[in-house]
């Protein structure tokens, strides 16, 4: 009788252990089948997405991704991440991003991220105070690369675009030069005396004249013929000569 009770207790002990062990093994097996989308994966995917769609060279971009969530546990299967810009077609600065997460074609999560995109741009800056009317020389300007969260429009991008040009206003030291703040220096100034030259059929006719406006190299300029008192237009070929064509 004692042995029979002993065997009965042993039988129930085995049953209880199996009941406990089987669920534990099931949980372990289920955990192995899950997959985790890490914060690092989410951010890296967003950065790659932006670098691929933005109209800048990748090595000029600096992308910072902001995601305040945690790692995401997903069921087993083929994972697909679809990133899209939300709120417009910004190309630089703050760009919000939406992420749709699918497994085997079924949407699992949709989350939002933020990003800051900076682009490296080459600009020309002044190295000293430039006064109105001064002509830019190499010692007055320098070429710099800057990272900015907005697109700088109408900037001077090479030294050649500024050298020999005239400042149309006072420009402070360290200032990024814009195209509208420079102009070609006049080859002749209003009131300057010039020689009016007419060439026709191998003949040269000249007359004294006075510029009625500032003139630029090879550009049309208004000039007064002192002898005839008539105002005509000619091309300023040098600081002393206006060539008139008929």
Task: Give an overview of the whole structure.
The chain has helices at residues 2-33, 39-53, and strands at residues 35-37, 61-66, 72-74, 79-85, 93-94, 97-103, 106-126, 141-148, 166-167, 182-183, 193-200, 203-211, 220-225, 231-238, 241-244. It is built from two helices and 15 strands. It has 246 residues and is α+β, with helices and mostly antiparallel strands. The chain has three domains: 36-118; 120-183, Type Iii Antifreeze Protein Isoform Hplc 12 (Alpha-Beta Complex); 193-244, SH3 type barrels. The radius of gyration is 39 Å and the shape is elongated.
Q: What are its keywords?
A:
single chain; 3 domains; alpha+beta; SH3 type barrels; 6-stranded antiparallel sheet; elongated; 5-stranded mixed β-barrel
Provide a concise account of the structure shown:
This protein has helices at 2-33, 39-53, and strands at 35-37, 61-66, 72-74, 79-85, 93-94, 97-103, 106-126, 141-148, 166-167, 182-183, 193-200, 203-211, 220-225, 231-238, 241-244. The chain is α+β, with helices and mostly antiparallel strands and 246 residues long.
What's the order of the H and E elements? HEHEEEEEEEEEEEEEE
- SS strand fraction: 35-45%
Number of domains: 3
Gross geometry: elongated
Low-confidence stretches: 19-29
Specify the structural class.
alpha+beta
Helix content: 10-25%
The N- and C-terminal alpha carbons lie at a distance of 139 Å
Biggest pleated-sheet summary: 6 strands, antiparallel
Mean pLDDT: 87
Number of strands: 15
C-alpha-based Rg, rounded = 39 Å
Number of continuous helical runs: 2
């Amino acid at each position: 009788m004692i042995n029979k009770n002993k065997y009965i207790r042993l039988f129930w002990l085995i049953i209880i252990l199996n009941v406990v062990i089987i669920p534990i093994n099931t949980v372990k097996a289920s955990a192995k089948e899950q997959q985790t989308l890490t914060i690092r994966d989410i951010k890296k995917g967003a950065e790659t997405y932006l670098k691929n769609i933005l109209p800048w060279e990748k090595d000029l971009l600096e992308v910072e991704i902001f995601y305040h969530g945690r790692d995401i546990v997903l069921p087993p299967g083929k994972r697909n991440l679809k990133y899209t810009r939300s709120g417009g077609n910004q190309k630089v600065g703050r760009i919000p991003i939406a992420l749709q997460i699918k497994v085997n074609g079924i949407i699992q999560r949709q989350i939002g991220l933020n990003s800051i995109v900076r682009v490296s741009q080459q600009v020309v800056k002044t190295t000293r105070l430039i006064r109105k009317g001064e002509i830019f020389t190499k010692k007055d300007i320098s070429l710099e690369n800057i990272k900015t969260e907005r697109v700088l429009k109408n900037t001077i991008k090479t030294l050649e675009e500024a050298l020999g040009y005239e400042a149309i206003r006072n420009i402070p030291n360290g200032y990024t030069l814009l195209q509208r703040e420079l102009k070609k220096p006049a080859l002749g100034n209003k009131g300057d005396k010039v020689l009016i030259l007419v060439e026709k059929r191998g003949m040269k006719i000249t007359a004294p004249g006075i510029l009625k406006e500032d003139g630029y190299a090879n550009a049309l300029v208004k000039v007064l013929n002192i002898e005839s008192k008539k105002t005509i237009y000619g091309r300023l070929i040098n600081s002393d000569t206006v060539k008139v064509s008929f």
